[in-house]
Amino acid sequence: MPGKLKVKIVAGRHLPVMDRASDLTDAFVEVKFGNTTFKTDVYLKSLNPQWNSEWFKFEVDDEDLQDEPLQITVLDHDTYSANDAIGKVYIDIDPLLYSEAATVISGWFPIYDTIHGIRGEINVVVKVDLFNDLNRFRQSSCGVKFFCTTSIPKCYRAVIIHGFVEELVVNEDPEYQWIDRIRTPRASNEARQRLISLMSGELQRKIGLKVLEMRGNAVVGYLQCFDLEGESGLVVRAIGTACTLDKLSSPAAFLPACNSPSKEMKESPLAHPPSHGCRSTHNSPIHTATGSRLTQNFSVSVPTLIYTGMGSGSAGKEGGPFKALLRQQTQSALEQREFPFFTLTAFPPGFLVHVGGVVSARSVKLLDRIHNPDEPETRDAWWAEIRQEIKSHAKALGCHAVVGYSESTSICEEVCILSASGTAAVLNPRFLQDGTVEGCLEQRIEENLPAGCGFCHIPYDELNMPFPAHLTYCYNCRKQKVPDVLFTTIDLPTDATVVGKGCLIQARLCRLKKKAQAEANATAISNLLPFMEYEVHTQLMNKLKLKGMNALFGLRIQITVGENMLMGLASATAVYLAALPMPGGIQIAGKTPSDGSYEQHISHMQKKISDTIAKNKELYEINPPEISEEIIGSPIPEPKQRSRLLRSQSESSDEVTELDLSHGKKDAFVLEIDDTDAMEDVHSLLTDVPPPSGFYSCNTEIMPGINNWTSEIQMFTSVRVIRLSSLNLTNQALNKNFNDLCENLLKSLYFKLRSMIPCCLCHVNFTVSLPEDELIQVTVTAVAITFDKNQALQTTKTHIEKSLQRASTDNEELLQFPLELCSDSLPSHPFPPAKATSVDYSSFADRCSSWIELIKLKAQTIRRGSIKTTVTVEKASPMGEGNFRNRSAPPCANSTVGVVKMTPLSFIPGAKITKYLGIINMFFIRETTSLREEGGVSGFLHAFIAEVFAMVRAHVAALGGNAVVSYIMKQCVFMENPNKNQAQCLINVSGDAVIFVRESELEVISTQQPTANCQQSCAGGEVTT
Amino acid sequence: MTSELDIFVGNTTLIDEEVYRLWLDGYSVSDAVALRVRAGILEQTGATAAVLQSDTMDHYRTFHMLERLLHAPPKLLHQLVFQIPPSRQALLIERYYAFDEAFVREVLGKKLSKGTKKDLDDISAKTGITLKSCRRQFDNFKRVFKVVEEMRGSLADNIQQHFLFSDRLARDYAAIVFFANNRFETAKKKLQYLSFGDFAFCAELMIQNWTLGAVGEAPSKPDSQVDDMDMDLDKEFLQDLKELKVLVADKDLLDLHKSLVCTALRGKLGVFSEMEANFKNLSRGLVNVAAKLTHNKDVRDLFVDLVEKVHLGPQFVEPCRSDHWPLGDVRLFLNQYSVTVHSLDGFRHQALWDRYMDTLRGCLLRLYHD
Description:
- Chain A: It comes from Erinaceus europaeus (Western European hedgehog).
- The structure holds 2 protein chains of 2 kinds.
- Chain A is 29% helix and 31% strand.
- Chain A is α+β, with helices and mostly antiparallel strands.
- In chain A, helix 13 crosses helix 20 (999-1024).
- Chain A is globular.
- Residues 250-325, 435-448, 628-668, 792-895 and 1009-1025 of chain A have low confidence and may be disordered.
- Chain B has helices spanning 17-24, 29-38, 41-45, 49-70, 73-78, 86-97, 101-107, 114-118, 120-127, 131-149, 155-163, 167-182, 196-210, 212-215, 235-240, 246-249, 251-265, 272-292, 296-300, 302-307, 317-323, 327-340, 350-367, and one strand at 2-10.
- The radius of gyration of chain B is 26 Å and the shape is elongated.
- Chains A and B meet through strand 29, helix 12, helix 16, strand 32 and helix 19 of A and strand 1, helix 4, helix 5, helix 6 and helix 11 of B.
């Protein structure tokens, strides 16, 4: 009996009217965990019931604790007929299972119904008593921490980074079971929600077990996804990076270490790269193996692509032997692993040695029913195949590891595209095993890797190059070779030297496809894929040149399959890396120089493009200092023109097509306009409008080149669906529609957020889906962060001065805050989360007129005399009197709702994360049969997304947190049937619940400590003398 | 290509004050877009019309969802769906319940019933305020009225507690509720020169002095189901006002009163001779207004009576105005007029007189303008 779960139902509020006659509700609550159910008393005739139940105790295995969600159902008691359900709350108790995370879950949770949405709130307190279990063969993995964050969480230190963990579980989808024909939509939705909750619990437990096997204690970069395969079932899969983390205990120790990226960036000096003689080629051989038929599992494998810029020539002499040594070391560390993959996108300093380029693999599969859910071998095999391919690609680039690794699927009917991508890299073995390899090797690494450019140096052997490429000596250190462009899926390393600012780049593409069935369909898709990859890549390259930049970070290519089309959307953040050569321009070449007007047209276009490049350089402040070629020294080696085939061992196919993405050796990038399509392409290049002044955007964590973030953040989700006119659908029309859709969406975002200028949209994440024949859905989640334009690189001196000033004013509340944090919240005090967030709230207070607070305080005193303020009002805000006392309290005293920030980033600007409370992973379904009445599709989805945010915030607040970091909306599946007045939507979100403290407040604490120490030593001095 | 669905949801709910104003003013989305274009927003931001349309739709949808909560402002504070900073919540509430001067003058003192609601078309046509906005304002009045109708305690405080208004707005609503409850006539042509502020000022004085709540005895016997304390005038008090008639009915008392006032004001009043000549008429007017308040119907005409002279002989405000007494003289006279009564030995209702006259004097001075 390794655990006891205790639940107390305190009260409800804002319940819906369930009895039309009395306009009231007779509510009671069922609390269910596993197969045990408890009930509260019925609280008669109230919309704000006070159950104040006893502690319901469940004695359960810790295995169940991990798998099962706590299910709370609020019902309306009905004497004569069946009790009506008002709604449910699912609480994931996982955060209570690690020692360092939350100790209690307590707060107001929205009561959610899949048909009616949020219907009031319920106040619940949940605790877990865990007994130590010494059973070595246990099935549970309590205590393994999970983080969605794709970097080492702040306030932890990575002792060892073990590597890749993956798992998947499958089940039948309740929506497609026979019973679904006879049960209500509500029952079916709830069955689905419960099942997915159970499956993700199970998945997390299994991954935890793998981590324990590897002797790790945490999973970082945990990414869990659902594949709704329809008839053939439901797959929940997850990947992550197993680590051994050490908590940085003393605040003094983590203060300097855990600087938010903004600070780290400040220290990086500006670069001084050269130019001249730049050649850009891009080589990306695609190799396709068109499928072999394997029994009943039809499988079309593989358009595969390796992006990189690279070159040939002789190796830097001094680098050679050392590299080999390094390689050996790393190899031994990594070869024990099946897949040397890391889901991290940002790394501890020194971890990333070299970056090869993007590696990706896709495979088209035909789904069939999962016959035995306990043995999900087919799906496992599919993924294993793809990962194997990725691994071999990485090897071809001379890399042993893949970082920034992610996997995704796109499903349409029975066809499924599996995709995986990452960045081939060479890693420092120091973090990969128990600190044995350290010593002289490590020193040498540091000597040989100048900060800011080391990761750009090619990892592969120049004599044995997999692809033709241009290499130059690094423009930063001039010792090692670098490629002319670099594509990666990771975040920009913090020590990288960047010129100017970065910007968001997108490549968008549609391809029509004939409707087909099964194998024919899969073949058609796999035939199209390589061309799409090629075009997406060309677009990215063109746009990168147009921006005058030379590297892409955070590259994410999404290929979406629909009934009659394929969509490709690639997003990345372009930057100018000082270590790489300056990109050449773009030249346009006409087909035939016969016609005069045509010539004119071409030259006009050429001018336009050159102007755009010049303008962009100015806009993004790209002005690297010129360096003459002599300084660079060595001649630029001739690129190999020959394209080569890369064959991965896993392939067994006999037909192999070969594609050369090389654009030849030309001084500038040449676009040949030989038909109207090409014309369109050039036009579309120029249609991308830069964001309005004061706005920047990127899809990485932070914007390269901006470092003075202020504390205002606004996370948002925006969804658009367009209907294509079914007539005359051509590829061009489609492309234009899709392009307009994305551009307009971005424009709308800039307009909506104009009050935040100057600001930057960070972590812009586009997702495309094709819910129906003629519908395109684009979902964007991002965060807008303000920054200070004027306040350039502020020195630490002024920082301290400021904090000292603040210290005098803010002392009181700050001192009491840490105490509040660690104090256990008692059941009698149902608002610990609100308390914890009080600090955040008080920051709001400066700006807001406080009369509303005053009124409420006043109201508390008046209340007694008036008739209509019954007990319920009094109880609904039990914070009331308690908060009269201290100065910091009034803002939160009045609103029982504490502010919870949400951000897709791993940090909060201007604040320090002091504690990780656990992972948030929630899945909701919402359905309506009165679509028009709810404001149509927009009204329906708007309300639903707002509700999802509310439920995430409520769970975080109940854990005692005041923010969600690394928030991601992984799925937003929307289906409508306007004729039937119906719509359904599924949303899956996740993130890390945290407690943060404003930097200004921490500074006060830290500046107080030295003075205290000083006083001590002074006092000591006096004694001795 | 048509946009089927287009939404934007922020973790902190975005509120555009400008669009909120347009929504409150009852403009349709397309009208609002046109108005925003006219205001030059496209030039300022470089946005396109489509972007503006989408933005406006989005805000309207948000406001529509918030409206349900705005009907019970404390719900807005406690709800979890929209994360809105307190200052913004206050702004939403304050603006939602704000009303147009032109509109409130039309319905002030009218019963907040379905019948009045039907007349909103006319009011809308007359004032140029959209029907939608008229409806919102009317429903706001009615909602506040319904909630505080049966409550004890200070009217303004009750309103503030249940609707979280600012002081100013709560006092305005107290006046609106008070007027609606007592159905004071405010629409007569003669009263058109008066602003809502004038009436609200008088309402506050009357609530302070002439209602049951003003006596302050109710809390001692909380179970007795007496009239609403702040909303209804103290019936007993109104009955007693008849006693004041003696001031004009008793000729000796009237003469004495006049001579005392004249002695005190001689040389201090620019319009002394007019005052002296008119004293009896003035005094009669002031006292008769009091005596008339016994009947409900006459209570409703209080303001008409105060301004008009036609009904029951010459009344106060009008005569003074026609002679163009300076405001200072009016104040001097009224002060002296009411204070002097304390020196009339034969007059026994001093407390009653003060309760009546203090309020009336305040009202009269406020109403005395062009």
